[in-house]
Design brief:
The chain is of the alpha+beta class. Helices cover about 55% and strands about 5% of the residues. It folds into 2 domains: about 1-75, 3-Layer(aba) Sandwich (Glutaredoxin); about 85-200, Glutathione S-transferase Yfyf (Class Pi), Chain A, domain 2 (Up-down Bundle), CATH 1.20.1050.10. β3 (about 55) and β4 (about 60-65) form a beta hairpin. The longest helix has 27 residues, at about 85-115.
């Protein structure tokens, strides 16, 4: 299976970590986003949205979107389970994962899109108010995660799941590319970050 990726992007990293947890090796094909590789006709035939990651199967079938790819991998390799073992755990992981995807990710994205790196590339005209709002919402969410992690060891409960992978990838991206590293005083968040970062699946990516 081929994974179309980009080394600095958080979403392909989510898939790579997920696959590594399952001991699955993906053939990574790195594209140059700056050169417009994902907007070329040959890639748009694989994913009309022109985004990565895309998983291409041996028969040429292409699956887009990080979570869809991870669900496919989970079906192929059910253990270790990362989406939930029973109805309640599945629902709780899904709820926390959606919070991460619909609250944290867009806030970091707003700060990124309207920040200096994207502006220097001339991709969009930055809006400072959007950058400031994204920064503020991200820091509020960090504080919220820190509080939640004072009561449990992982994002969605007592064990590592897809929610931890998604949270870690975006927090790392925010720290490296958006100048949005969590404050040092968020001790529970940093304790979680250090613990999960020691996992072989994560230390390799």
């Amino acid at each position: 299976m081929k994974l179309y990726s980009f080394p600095e992007a958080p979403n392909p990293r989510r898939v790579l970590i997920f696959a590594a947890e399952k001991n699955l090796q993906l053939d990574v094909v790195n594209l140059d986003l700056r050169a417009g590789d994902t907007k070329r006709p040959e890639f748009l035939r694989k994913n009309p949205s022109g985004k990565i990651p895309v998983l291409e199967l041996d028969d040429g079938t292409c699956i887009a979107e990080s979570v869809a790819i991870c669900r496919y991998i989970e079906a192929l390799a059910p253990e270790p389970n990362l989406f939930g073992r029973d109805a309640l755990e599945t629902a709780l992981i899904e709820a926390h994962h959606r919070h991460i995807e619909f609250e944290l990710h867009p806030s970091i994205g707003a700060a990124w899109v309207n920040g200096p790196i994207v502006a220097a590339a001339g991709i969009v005209e930055p809006i400072e108010a959007q950058r400031l709002r994204g920064t503020s919402l991200t820091r509020k969410y960090y504080a919220r995660i820190n509080e939640e992690l004072s009561a449990r060891p992982f994002i969605a409960g007592e064990r590592f799941s897809i929610a931890d992978i998604s949270a870690l990838c975006m927090i790392d991206f925010a720290g490296a590319m958006v100048d949005l590293k969590p404050s040092e005083g968020l001790l529970h968040l940093w304790d979680w970050h250090q613990r999960v970062s020691r996992r072989p699946s994560i230390s390799n990516y």
